[in-house]
Amino acid sequence: MQITTEVKFIFNTIEHRDIFFKSFLPEFKGFNAKRSSWQIYPINPDSAHINFQIQAEDATAFRATINSLIQFASVVEKTLNLVE
Questions:
Q1: Distance between CA atoms of residues 43 and 47, nearest Å
Q2: Environment class of residue 55 by beta-carbon count within 10 Å: exposed (0-12), middle (13-18) or buried (19+)?
Q3: Which distant-in-sequence residues (6+ apart) come within 8 Å of 15 by Cβ?
Q4: DSSP code of 23?
Q5: If you ran DSSP here, which 8-state letter would residue 29 be given?
Q6: Any residues with CB less than 8 A from the CB of 67 and at least 6 apart, and which?
Q7: Which CATH class is domain 3-83?
Q8: What is the pLDDT of residues 2-11, one digit of tens each?
Q9: What distance in Å separates the CA atoms of residue 68 and residue 56, rounded to the nearest whole number?
Q10: 32 DSSP assignment
Q11: Predicted structure pTM score
Q12: How far apart are CA 76 and CA 38, in angstroms?
């Protein structure tokens, strides 16, 4: 079974989107999973969202990948809330 999905993170501002994006890249640059992969779609400079595509060979790999992405997003969100 293969699972493919798109995930969209919608931010309050373009600045928040940029902070997330810049924080995300170094953290996941070395992300190397055998049974799953992800891709960031090109960012629209006028939009406050980021789209990801996740592909996994099975449900366990999908869950692990989506959990990693969500956990990272949660850390960035909490940090942005503290700064504001």
A1: 8
A2: middle
A3: none
A4: H
A5: T
A6: none
A7: alpha beta
A8: 999 999 999 9
A9: 13
A10: -
A11: 0.79
A12: 19
